[in-house]
Hints:
The chain is an alpha/beta fold. The chain has helices at residues 2-16, 57-76, 110-113, 116-121, 136-148, 158-177, 179-187, 252-271, 286-289, 322-325, and strands at 28-33, 38-43, 80-85, 94-101, 152-154, 189-190, 203-204, 211-212, 233-234, 241-247, 275-279, 301-309, 326-328.
Amino acid sequence: MRDRVTEAVPALVAAAVAAPSMHNAQPWRFVHHADTGVLSLYGDPDRALPVGDPEHRGMHLGCGGALFNLRVAAAQQGWNAVTDAFPDRRDPWRLVDVTLEEPGTLPFDRVLADLFPAVDARHTNRSPFSDEQIPPEIFDELCAAALLEGARLAVPSDWHADDLVDLVHDAELHEAASDLMRAEIIAWTRTGRAGEGPEAEGVPSYAFGPRQHDVKVPVRDFGLPQDTQRRATATFEERPQLAVLGTETDDPADWLRAGQAMERILLVATRDGLATSMMSQPLEWPELRSMARDPASRMGFVHMVFRLGYGPPAAPTPRRPVADVLTVV
């Protein structure tokens, strides 16, 4: 049994690290305890974003996404992944212990297993989407996916969607005025210039997407002003189709839960043929994050805003090798 678990772990971690993370910082590491078979997921403080994510909420979201992918990969291999969140109060970075169990009276989750092809197919898409409307039944599926992970997904009304777009633009003004924020983003941007970080992390220039001809869609522009002449300009969709993910309360357990819901939503959307991107800009500023919530909603705290639609394929962004993120003890 333990030998089978040991053999399975690298493939599970390879699926886990396909999850999205803020600026593709990949803020996770895994420890496999060979004696017990437990696989522990840790947040990596060396990959924290102290300006954009001072409370580590974004880190927990990314790690939650990695955990969900791991659960999907385990189910695809016929395992049940039993999770124990925050198992060591002395170590807040030890987020989850995962134990793989062979199906017994409780069969493995076929619904999770069926999402496995979407793990590698999901990529953040910063290109223009068409104006084709997403059918209501697909939005219903996405809302159900969030509920399965203990979170809530809401499709904003027209006025709320307009407010969210305005909040993103307000966040861009905050960002432009903050030398520290701009420096942090540049540190995780890869344009091929000398002295930049490793190619296996961060946001590469090919993933920036085109510049907007008429800036009205809330897509983060990672490009520097001096690069604008080298990037194509495109017209984006007239009205972006948005969805808002949140929870009733706002603590690390909620963030981890929201991260799993985030990835489940993204994988279901990918399976259903949707292009996806995420907008965290207004959520990185406390004074703006509270305004992202619909005051009439039961959603207490917003964790992510999704842009969904139909668009061209997006290229994958790089990931660190499994050997760099997995330790066996």
